[in-house]
Fold this sequence. Notes:
about 400 residues, alpha+beta, 3 domains
Amino acid sequence: MVNHFYVYCVDRDFGPFFLKFCTYFPYNAKLCINGHEWLKRQLTQHSIGFQALDNGVLSCENPAKAQALCEALSAQKIVALLRKWLRLLPHPFTPADRRAGYRYDVSILQAAFSLTQVLDRPVTGRAFFEEVIRENLDIGRPSQAQLIFEPRVTRRTPGQFRTRVITDGVIPSLHVDYKSSRIKQYHKQGRALRTETTINNTRDFSIGKNLRNLPALRTIGFQANRRLLNVQTVSHDCAIGEKAFDQVARPLARDGLRASALRCGEPRTHALLGALVLFSVQTQGFNNTQLRTQLARLLGEDPEQYSAGRMSYDLRRLRLHGLIRRIARTHRYELTDQGLRVAMFFNRTHARLLRPGLAEACAPDTTGQSALRAAFDHLQRLIDQRCEDLKLAA
């Protein structure tokens, strides 16, 4: 006996979709459409160029118009699609049944609302997403769920609340369960961050199942996506300055030449950056001898013992990293705008934040503790207490 049969169709406005019919009373049916396919068909009809990303859009000539087309997908258009194809396809209700008033009414079994953020640097996006996963493993707990969904969660709230990381091959995805619904976040085809809220039971949000409630569900779904991203933005530095940091703190190759890294915390690096911001080398630029003299003094060495070849190596490093440039038709150099910012930021951060901060945080116990040391001690006590409460080994 055939319990169900499927009909796969391609519509002019909606693209590919399918209908699933049950062959026994009460002859339930399921309509499955994809809003991204609707958008791609509409963009084609309006002669708007775009590049697809699987079932999403990678790029578009007119993003504002594309957004307007997305918002134009309404319950009325979905019902019209169903009525149109029911007139064309065989299904359990005969013409006599339809004349007697037996018709399909559309309710919402599942609705997914997604936000696709295309990344201009996919490798950085992957690193960002993996860091986000590590820092948000508790986002699905009942105490954290209200950060994403408005309804307050108590011990008596039914449903499942958890966070899972599922790895398919080398591609991880973050899943946050809320009652019967779920938020899924993953790195889509290595090009975009996809955040997708799937509502499996509209009653989770005190909303009816009729299709006319689609606008209310859309508001909830997209708000959940945005709230999750806001939580992640607050909890994680999204590495906007990663490129600038890597350009200085990592080895690089440029124009066939290699330059070693200018590592933060290395005495020679900080002495070199400190010499660059001295006023005496700012006015008319500097040459090998002038910078070598200043650098040797900052390192506590005899300038005569700091060789010209060693200084030439440092000048080459600074030039390849983009911190200095050579003045045309001379043997003199000048500091670039980026070089000035990098030198001041590295040295001030190291001298005024890292060294004194670590001294306060790691100093032996004293009677006159700093606020920073007191905060770290309080944190350690809370961690120890938590381990004791959970009966964890020391």
